[in-house]
């Protein structure tokens, strides 16, 4: 077989001609990018001129003063300096359609005026009084937040992150039940501290430290799971795991209704309702991790609502504060009482500025009808993505609910071979066309589409067109 050689192929072509070819290709790509940018939905906001350091300067600072774990998306990292609703702007003023929302965080939209104003008013008046004094901000938000949960879930503990919230929930489950074993689901992600790292079901997020007392059930993944969409079979495996891997009694079962970091994986139908009965018979608490799926992202206020279960504990973060460091655990008064056995305190949990932001988020969700929009636009976008799947063999699966959607890329549909390298390439191409999406899944081959919930049908159309074009150029 004749081996391809760039040297032998191009050695007889004049350098000037090669340069013109390369220049022509570059100009064609730029023209395509400009054509697409011209079709971006109109938007009135124009950011003020940016006068700060360049992307290169910031990148060098990060390399010198931050750990290498703070990696960047894209071959050429973006320097994002401004944002408004569902759009972000780089240092040159170029506008991008944000379909990632800071990893499912900015649910209301970037710099939403009805979030920004009350926060500014609060920070001007009082920034951090400590919860040891009375202040209305934490009380108002806790009451409003509890009203969004079913049953007797009405006692709120505030934290600063999802990891903190999940750590607290796991500890409460152990204290309340008197048991020590936790069951979670493979491919799930719950945090990076001691207990939550143990509950996380992906090796890439688990450091070589002692992680005991956690058991991982089969992932009820309709696309890659061993039982397909048969939720009952996965539930029977959960039952066997408890019977053979524990004392028969567990402290709790923690789950994401839609796995976020794991690649926007919906749990198989019927699994959670069957798992609920199994967990209860084993004496455990049912713990819903709503860090990514909560606050109407899925079209329901909470992800677990689609499964007809009411958890004993609900954890949340990300969308709760629209970008402010805020998390929470909500549980019943009976379970909450376990923390009165000792002194529990969180210095910044319930901070006046953060809880002001949290209350503003709830008000915006209602005023702007973001739950209805997430459901309507999310269904429309998913339908358009399903059409792309029929067109492009590389798209193996489209999944999710509301505006928490995943597109899994495979190089072989039958074998479901992860198209990891292709995913990175297409992401870069979409960025050049002005669309930002996330990436996740165990193999890094899933586009995570989690935009601000103010996303419109026009935005959805533009995203699909950019993805269609980028995949077509593979």
Automatic annotation (TrEMBL):
The keyword Chaperone does not apply. Belongs to the class-III pyridoxal-phosphate-dependent aminotransferase family. Its EC number is 2.6.1.44. PROSITE patterns: AA_TRANSFER_CLASS_3 (PS00600). This is alanine--glyoxylate transaminase. It catalyses: glyoxylate + L-alanine = glycine + pyruvate. CDD domains: OAT_like (cd00610). Pfam families: Aminotran_3 (PF00202). Its cofactor is pyridoxal 5'-phosphate. GO terms for biological process: photorespiration. It comes from the Eukaryota. InterPro entries: Aminotrans_3 (IPR005814), Aminotrans_3_PPA_site (IPR049704), PyrdxlP-dep_Trfase (IPR015424), PyrdxlP-dep_Trfase_major (IPR015421), PyrdxlP-dep_Trfase_small (IPR015422). It comes from Brassica campestris.
